[in-house]
Target: TMEM175 family protein
Amino acid sequence: MKEKNLELERLVFFSDAVVAIAITILVFNLKLIGDEGKHITFTDLWQTWPKVLAFFLSFFIIALFWKLHHQFFFYIRTIDEMLLWNNICWLLFLVLLPFSTTLIATHFTDSAAMVAYCANVLLINVFQNNIWDYAAKRPELLTPGIDERLTKFYRRVCNVAMINSVISLAIAFFFPVVGFIILVVRLPALMFSERLFKAMK
Amino acid sequence: MKEKNLELERLVFFSDAVVAIAITILVFNLKLIGDEGKHITFTDLWQTWPKVLAFFLSFFIIALFWKLHHQFFFYIRTIDEMLLWNNICWLLFLVLLPFSTTLIATHFTDSAAMVAYCANVLLINVFQNNIWDYAAKRPELLTPGIDERLTKFYRRVCNVAMINSVISLAIAFFFPVVGFIILVVRLPALMFSERLFKAMK
Amino acid sequence: MKEKNLELERLVFFSDAVVAIAITILVFNLKLIGDEGKHITFTDLWQTWPKVLAFFLSFFIIALFWKLHHQFFFYIRTIDEMLLWNNICWLLFLVLLPFSTTLIATHFTDSAAMVAYCANVLLINVFQNNIWDYAAKRPELLTPGIDERLTKFYRRVCNVAMINSVISLAIAFFFPVVGFIILVVRLPALMFSERLFKAMK
Amino acid sequence: MKEKNLELERLVFFSDAVVAIAITILVFNLKLIGDEGKHITFTDLWQTWPKVLAFFLSFFIIALFWKLHHQFFFYIRTIDEMLLWNNICWLLFLVLLPFSTTLIATHFTDSAAMVAYCANVLLINVFQNNIWDYAAKRPELLTPGIDERLTKFYRRVCNVAMINSVISLAIAFFFPVVGFIILVVRLPALMFSERLFKAMK
Model:
């Protein structure tokens, strides 16, 4: 079992490194409009607000995904191949998020951009949900004696996040900015839900 | 021996970090055709499909290389200088893959681009093969009591991957897209082969 | 408690990885003025001095933040949610610093650029201060038996750094270059303050 | 002492992460000459040879620096502030190397570019030398019972590398390409010197 843990640690480490890079390269989306030659004013800075907004949203979305991922892997003690590939697909779409962020950062009001962004967030959600769904059904993968209410709670968190993504995706086709706002709303909701659980316990 | 393990851990950590960065910067290949000013449509997104395909293939190729690398180093307990340099050369060509991916992402149907890509994949294969070949012949480098069938199995996996790369390289000179498809085929094949071994055991 | 430490270690690891990436991508600010085609001379290199200066300042500012962060987490033995989010916000603004560095690297004498840079440094300071303030007030989060003078000393270091940032921010509105120089001064001051404390002890 | 080790581990980890990123972003120097629109041929690929050469040299130079750094920190058991700042300066110039590599990749035959590159390599050497020089003189920083011949050997390796950098720097003013070749020569020399020591022992 010690050996399995070693493999698990490496997967977690590798995931952490990829997430750390993805969250950092978000900053490349911030660029001033206009060329290097001329002076910049506070107005120039101010006009970058859609990019800054997109940067902030993506940063906190990735941070929340990372936090949840860690909470999952705090209770997962062994991995098998299925879990590994679910985790790799989770990473795949997480790595894509900086690109989707570029899309909305430069085309904030275009529905094609916002749809791509929401679809991306949804896909990360789907694989994060897969990870917990798969692990929670297999007691041999989890630390023994895990509280069943916790298992259910995490499943519900994933579901709430998925529903939020689906709604924002559907709306983004017609009202891109509203889709964005719905995604923003998930952040405090997810943070709040956590406290709710602790109060319950 | 504990000291040697420390050195080994650092090499594995360093390799993991490099692979994590290489797999993440693949996303820089995704760029929209056209300039920032105008609106983007779903057609614009759709036209990026060669880039998205190239991104997906490279992502899974690197993920598979990483997985195999980990399985190797799960059984390797000590490193010597030869193994270290083989590993560094493995990293060298792995780091090159994002560049080769750019080539095929922007010139999907040019044989020069596809040949460069296939040659790059082949070179990673060669050094991965070297690592296992070198270690498997030296029992003092491996964990004691390793199953000989496993040693052979990994060697065969390397060989199959190398043959796949050579074929795709040869074909890419004449039919770049067919070369690409042959590389795609390796992915399920390598995943499947693993299960085959487990069934045997 | 061992479990909590595991979570703490991962947070520290994740923070380290993000800081390592942020400090490395600073180098992307260094670019020659002029196009690839023509030859470059020593004059061309010399003319990059504002970029090199900005690179050096940001590198040492991040290095100092990292060092202090480590010293904090050397004494913090448990994290709670509040500390986690303070740390994530600390990372958020640290990740922004390469962008602010680009602003001053390309517009060294524009007050809008320098104000953005100083505000960014201030915001990192604020959250670093929050981390220690929050932890220092809760003995259950710290290693038992920590010297109270140390707690106070670190608080004072944070305060000095914040005051320095506020002053440089205020001055940057009118004299950008003076604001920059005040930020430069903090570096030896912070290094020196450390020695002062050791002498006291 | 356990606590000190923890700090040391983090410094080594942070250094490893920075080096891993620096070595990976070297690949951004590889770009095709010409625009995206037209087809690429084998001639286009072939014309990138100065960039590929620069990439290879920098990759192996960083790999060798990393290897030596690890060997140093294998024997260093504690760090103090002086060692920390020497290490941070070492990282500073290591992070600069991808920029210097861009200079020679795009202006292979310009002496200004090659001088900057050689100076950069020299500066990394200087701080690596400082690290070992400082630690080797303080037995309290090293693992007890370290072979004195080893201490001397590492000092000599640093000196040889520094002399090589100085010579290449001096020559690069007049014959850039010769300066480059002298840097290339160091690679097998440094690898060979290692074996020499082992033969001696």
In short: Residues 26 and 98 of chain D are 5 Å apart (CA to CA).
